Structures are given as C-alpha cells and as structure tokens.
Automatic annotation (TrEMBL):
InterPro entries given in the database record: ARM-type_fold, FANCD2
Cellular localisation: Nucleus
Biological classification of the source: Eukaryota, Metazoa, Chordata, Craniata, Vertebrata
Database matches in PANTHER family: FANCONI ANEMIA GROUP D2 PROTEIN (PTHR32086)
Organism: Macaca fascicularis
GO molecular function per UniProt: DNA polymerase binding
The protein's name in its UniProt record: FA complementation group D2
Length: 307
C-alpha cells in the first residue's frame, strides 16, 4: 500500500490483485478505505503517474503517440476492473467493506467517480448486496453527496467498463423510478439518459424498452418521468431514437392508460421523431400519429400540427 504511488499503471492490476487477495475480515474496511484514497479515482490512474504521462505526451507532441498511450491506459484500466470484479465476486468481505467505505464517506467533495463505478460493479456482481447498495445510493442522493455531474463524469470516463453492466444499471434505474422521492426519481432518469448516450445500440434499445414499460405502467410519476426522458433522448440523438421508433409507436395502443397532458408529451416525442428526417420510418410515424389523434379524440389533428 505504501508503494502504490510509485507503481506503473500497467503493473497496477497485479498489485491490486495481490492486495485484495491478502485482505482479511479484520482489516478489510481499513485496506479498502486506504486503497480508494490512494488511487486517482477520476481516471483510475495514480496522480503522479497521470501527471508524468501528460508531461511526457506534451513534450513529444505526437498525436499517434497520444492515441497509443490512451489505448494502452484504457486496456490497463479495464484489466484492473476485471481483477476487482473477480475479487468481489468470490469474497463477500471485500464487497461489503467497499460499500461500507463509500457509505462512511460524509463530505460531498470526497465522493469520487470510482465510488459510483464500484457501486455499479458490486450491484451487477453480487445479487445479495443489491438492497444494501440501493439504500446507500438513496441516502447519498437525498443528502446531495452524489449529484448529476459526478454521474455524468462516471459514464464519460468509464463507459467501456460500464457498458458490460447495462442490464444491471437499467435494473437499478427502474428501482429508483419506483421511489416517492423526486430527487431519487430524477437520478434514476439520469441513469437511463446516460446509458442511452454512452452505450451501444443494443443498450439503447433496452433503454427505450424500459422507458416504454414505465409509460405503460399507469403510475403517474413514472409515466411523466419516462416521457420526459424520451423527449430528451429524441432531442439528444434523433437518429438513434429513430432506430427504436417502433417501441415508441407501441405506446399509442395504451393511450387509455395515460392522461391528456401525458398524451401531449407523447405526441411531442412522436412529432419530433416524425419530422426530424423525411424518410420512410418518419412518414409512417406521421400517418400513425395523425390516425390516433383523429380516432382517439384526446388530441385533435389541428392541435397536433400546432404542437
């Protein structure tokens, strides 16, 4: 632990593996707490190593060298997380100590990107700790210790690690959206938003499918939140949303379960999709939306056009 500051990034996975395998029930919390303090958790790179790497790259001034270095560092980071996943999968003591170390962190400034990554990893790896992690997250969100900027940085820096946990992250988002606390609901909606933004097309499809399920649930708060997220995603990445338009159109079969105000939000989503690009898919949305507006009677065709 004392020598961590002088270890090269490429050697870090081996050292961390040794440390985690040497942990006992007596010293687990102490070791994990010190470990998360000694690492630069924003980039999962030791501070001195990160600064030295930046100086070296600037002095070379070569884009290709920078790209190779970044790729190598990313590989080391992925390997490091694989080592940690393996340790917490087979050692309950380690996962519980890691959650406890995060739970004991009181200051807002002390909460790191790596903390969120670890909560996601443990949530996806150890099913027995899911309720515990949800409770810790809810408390952190209520107290303002974990905010949107931290979540966005987590996805931005470690999306390659998080994408393999897409289904678990969406499961967590679904659970948070069932809350009665608006701050927790908002955090759950952000999980959907950033999963769609940073993950691949398969995950994007899963995100839209999950949001449609919320909309068809009949729960007013869930419906409103899911519709708001859908509209934000349409504005954020209309081409990606167009690929999932079939799921959104399916909501038109459940108009009886949502209020007129919510129907307005839905048609705002559909209209944005329909008229973003004039192609076969968008034309089909235009026809379907207009037919539903005429038959359903909740929104007149003229009113839809005005929106």
């Amino acid at each position: 632990m004392d020598k961590l500051s002088s270890i090269r990034l490429e050697d870090l996975p081996v050292i961390i593996k040794f440390i985690l395998h040497s942990i006992t029930a007596m010293d687990a919390l102490e070791v994990i707490s010190e470990l998360r303090e000694k690492l630069d958790l924003q980039h999962c790179v030791l501070p001195s190593r990160l600064q030295a790497s930046q100086v070296k790259l600037k002095s070379k001034g070569r884009a290709s060298s920078s790209g190779n270095q970044e790729s190598s560092d990313q590989s080391c980071i992925i390997l490091l997380f694989d080592v940690i996943k393996s340790a917490i999968r087979y050692e309950k003591t380690i996962s519980e100590a890691w959650i406890k170390a995060i739970e004991n962190t009181a200051s807002v400034s002390e909460h790191k990107v790596f903390d969120l990554v670890m909560l996601f990893i443990i949530y996806s790896t150890n099913t027995q700790t899911k309720k515990y992690i949800e409770r810790v997250l809810r408390n952190k969100i209520r107290s303002g210790c974990i905010q949107e900027q931290l979540l966005q940085s987590t996805f931005s820096v470690h999306y390659l690690v998080l994408k393999d946990m897409c289904s678990s992250i969406l499961s967590l988002a679904q659970s948070l959206l069932h809350s009665l606390d608006q701050s927790i609901i908002s955090f759950g909606s952000l999980l959907y938003k950033y999963a769609f933004k940073f993950f691949d097309t398969y995950c994007q499809q899963e995100v839209v499918g999950a949001l449609v399920t919320h909309i068809c649930s009949g729960n007013e708060a869930e419906v409103d939140t899911a519709l708001d997220v859908l509209l934000e995603l349409v504005l954020l990445n209309p081409s990606a949303m167009m690929m999932n338009a079939v799921f959104v159109k399916g909501i038109l079969d459940y108009l009886d379960n949502i209020s007129p105000q919510q129907i307005r939000k839905l048609f705002c989503v559909l209209s944005t999709l329909a008229f973003s690009k004039q192609n076969e898919a968008s034309s089909h949305i235009q026809v379907r939306a207009t037919q539903e507006a005429e038959v359903g009677g909740s929104i007149e065709p003229r009113e839809l056009r005005l929106q």
